Amino acid sequence: MAKKKTDSDRVFERRLARHHDELRWLYMELYDNGDMFAELCAQMKRYYEMRSDRLKKLDAEREADKEWYRRRDMVGMMMYIDNFAGTIQGVQEKLPYLEQCNVDYIHLMPFLDSPKGRSDGGYAVADFRKVKPELGTMEDLAVLAEQCHDRGISLCMDFVMNHTSEDHEWAVKARQGDGEYMSRYFFYADPAIPREYERTVPQVFPATAPGNFTYLPELGHYVMTTFYPYQWDLNYRNPRVFNEMMYNFLYLADQGMDIIRIDAVPYIWKELGTNCRNLPQVHTIVRMMRMIGEIVCPGIVLLGEVVMEPDKVAPYFGTVEKPECHMLYNVTTMATTWHTVAVKDVRLLRKQMDIVCALPKEYTFLNYLRCHDDIGWGLDYAALKTWGMEEVPHKRYLNDYFRGNIPGSVSRGELYNEDFVTGDARFCATTASMCGVESAGFEQDEQKMDRAVEKDIMLHAYMFTQSGIPMLYSGDEVGQVNDYTYKEDPDKAPDSRYIHRGRFQWELAERIRDKKSVQGRIFHALRHLEEIRRREPVFDADAEVCTKDYSDRAILWVIRREAGEELHAVFNFSDEAKTIWMPEIAEYTDLLTGKTAQTETVKLPGWGFFWMKKRKTERS
Known about the structure:
Oligomer: single chain
Structural class: alpha/beta
């Protein structure tokens, strides 16, 4: 036993020694507090010792295989525990279904304790070490993690670093006037300071939660609340805040989490006179968090939520020598994809994909069509303007199109956070409803349903073609449509995002046995695509990827090259059938059918696609 303990100590000391000098330098640069740094190091050792032997073994395996999370067989699914299976134990019982979906990465949406009716979907955390009682316990979570690891499935959770709920222990004490805890937030008695912040800090929700501060009359102070009045921003200029949040991070990692999604990363550091977004200190904090993870729990992956344009997103990867996040969301490409569906013009999408493809191959993006959140139309309006699309009218067009208010549109959904002054708004719906499954079902139109299913499958195939990890939103695999029952719940009715946060309909999953049903067609098509992706080297994370110019603006052509093979992935973003001319008459293998033949042209139906693979010759 003593020898084992000694070996364990040596592992920790080796990892600490690798990062100690840089970690201390960054910490002292930010806080200039040696005592607090010493405490951090001592607590890192404590959480390392608390980590189970099983997790330490997994850490060692992942240290030896640092690319484990980038494998081409990785397919993720995000879900709300209560909607999907009721409880954490219920998720355990549904693991065979997830395996049937070829899912090996599960993102459990916020499940930590938060106040009913004031939770922002769980992103207002009252206790970072307690699961919502109705979902289960931390012990249940640890058991689920073990069962997932037995099946080769990784677990992801949200870590809300920017703020706490006003019901959090710190906030409660701060509201009572305790100066130590007030210093963990941004409190100001003088209204001039909040007014000064408001001069430069944009509003996140100008219609539903205007301003960046909330006045507390019982205390006579303003508190910074960037998102909602019940979410109080943490003050990371206070080293106690950083240390305690890192201890929460390590505690959650010790429960068996594999991927920690850092919520609202760009907002973490606040500075008067700035926009309080993407400040240099944010990168310092994320870099320190990356090193702390590599010291205590190197099997953990950091996933950053950076909902910004590409030039603001990429820096959160850090550098090869000093990495920050392991993965980032491909947010702009997602929004640009739906823009392309509406305008049937791939030029902006090509431009966006070219930007992503030009980034270092080490950068890993998480790709998705829909998620728990709304779609914000943060597009490249400078480029769109050159093509005759002005920002304000174009946003209005997109929202009208996806609500089904434009002739020819089959989409259904609702606006979110509409600003009646500027006319700006975001959009909410499921993938299936945006593709027309809902409207075709309502009209009982089989032809329209066929087209909707084809569009749904094509968009997923396009997502699987991108470099990175594809992420499904629970229900998309069976074509689940919008759920309007949220309007009957007073706690949910004001938030239209609940239209795509409905309960998973297990009766739909029963229909996948019928391969001719809508559910069966979508489910088995996605499963087939996932299986192709798993076995074909052209989908490797380090494959060369580029787009190909084609004369038809409705055609997106993506090329992937790896291991002497070349994939031509072509997608028709229009209702009209197209005849596609291949670059050369050659022998191609249709990955969807497995057939190989000399090919010159391919007929592509509306919203159709193909994956054609060519083995490169010496000349080519």
